[in-house]
Batch of 3 targets.
Target 1
Amino acid sequence: MKKIILFLLSITFLTLVPANAAIYKGQKVFVKRCLSCHEGGQSFVAEYKMKVWKKLMKKKGKPLAKLHLKKKSAKKSWKYFKSKKYTKKSKHLKQFVIEYAKDSGNVPACN
Ligand code: HEC
């Protein structure tokens, strides 16, 4: 049963939008790395417009990282934002947040 669900899920992800695999990867990063601090579940992504996310995710997400590195209250995220893991996956994260930005009209499916 689990396998079937996973299979259906991946089909959905693969057929919805072309850039989908990357968006799915970005979603995973987002859920795992961002929602520990940012409340509201995945709707957090829809709190900002595309333009804002695009700006924050420029240059491999440097502005977003910088913003967090400046905030003492975000200290727990520093290690991550300074890591290669972050820059490496920032591309996927970017696609995800832009895909589901406030003015995109899309809502992330599943969780
Ligand atoms: C350790 C906690 C923590 C983690 C993890 C974290 N953030 Fe934040 N984030 C913060 C704090 C604290 C602020 C500053 C809030 C404020 O000043 O009001 C912030 C601010 C923001 C803002 C607001 C910027 C603005 O100009 O208003 C965005 C967007 C954001 N984070 C996105 C993300 C994304 C995307 C991730 C995952 C890659 C993430 N955050 C991970 C704690 C975190």
Target 2
Amino acid sequence: MRSKNVVIAVALVLPLLGAGCVKEYSFKRDIHPVLKEKCASCHNGAGEGYAASGFSVASYETLMKGTKFGAVVIPGSSVSSTLARAIEGKTHASIAMPRTGSPLSKEEIQMLKAWIDQGAKNN
Ligand code: HEC
């Protein structure tokens, strides 16, 4: 009897989580504005970050292309994405980003990671 109640409770709560709590982030609305504000001064197709790494946040295409060595966003896997690790301070300090200026807020970091985990779509 008791376990049946648990099953019913879970069955009722799961759709609520799916509908309300897990927000789908948009590149245009949520992600690009943050990258433009916090990263573009050095990574916009010019600037010291672009000169050193070839990484530009000017567009979705340049973001996904990554650095001259390869991708820094792995769709579906923020833990494998250099970009996410760099903004969380999980890389070597020399590539902790942004290099100078104000770091990303906890909310911005969570949002970027969620967008990557949701497939890093051009939405
Ligand atoms: C003040 C300038 C500056 C700002 C602002 C900046 N970067 Fe950088 N970035 C650099 C420099 C310089 C490098 C090259 C570092 C190196 O390889 O030694 C770099 C390298 C990188 C790399 C390549 C790391 C690698 O694998 O070698 C990534 C990814 C990156 N930046 C992401 C970002 C993101 C995301 C932001 C915004 C949150 C940002 N950067 C803001 C200067 C900056």
Target 3
Amino acid sequence: MIYSRPLIITILISLIIVFAHACGGNDTSERPSGQTGSAEPALSDFELEHGIGPVTERIELADEFDPDLVEKGRNIYEMKCEMCHNMEGRMVGPELGDIMERRSAEFVMNFILNPSGMVREHPVGQELLREYMTAMPFQNVQEEEARAIVEFLREYNELN
Ligand code: HEC
């Protein structure tokens, strides 16, 4: 039996349409909603913007700097941060002179308090680790000390 060429083409096209529909049509409905297929847990909006760590809420920042807090932050910074960070230009880690323009106070505190979690689980941390190829160590800094460092960095950013 001899089929005409248009008939064969029509059958082929019909088969392609049926196949495409069966294979791709209800792909998404087979996955439980919310699951992206990657092993990483989804970050909340807060975590994406303000980092992962002990700081889980916005903190209050007064317009005026607290001079005692600035001084305390400066001392800790000189002891525990300066060996790896410059205010101007990169060193072992990124420059920090303009960090308060680039990141929120909560993000900076979470990076100080949970550096390994940040490079493991946060997209910004992962990107920084790829770029700097050294993992920032936890410097045994308490939460109020991290807050003081933020005050010092805020003032630095304002004055320079
Ligand atoms: C041993 C070197 C080292 C020390 C000490 C160190 N850091 Fe870091 N820091 C890094 C590196 C490297 C990165 C980039 C992320 C990574 O690779 O872990 C980084 C990243 C950061 C970031 C994120 C920068 C951005 O662009 O978001 C902040 C904020 C930061 N450090 C603050 C500090 C503070 C404050 C201290 C002192 C308490 C400190 N670091 C101590 C090496 C260090």
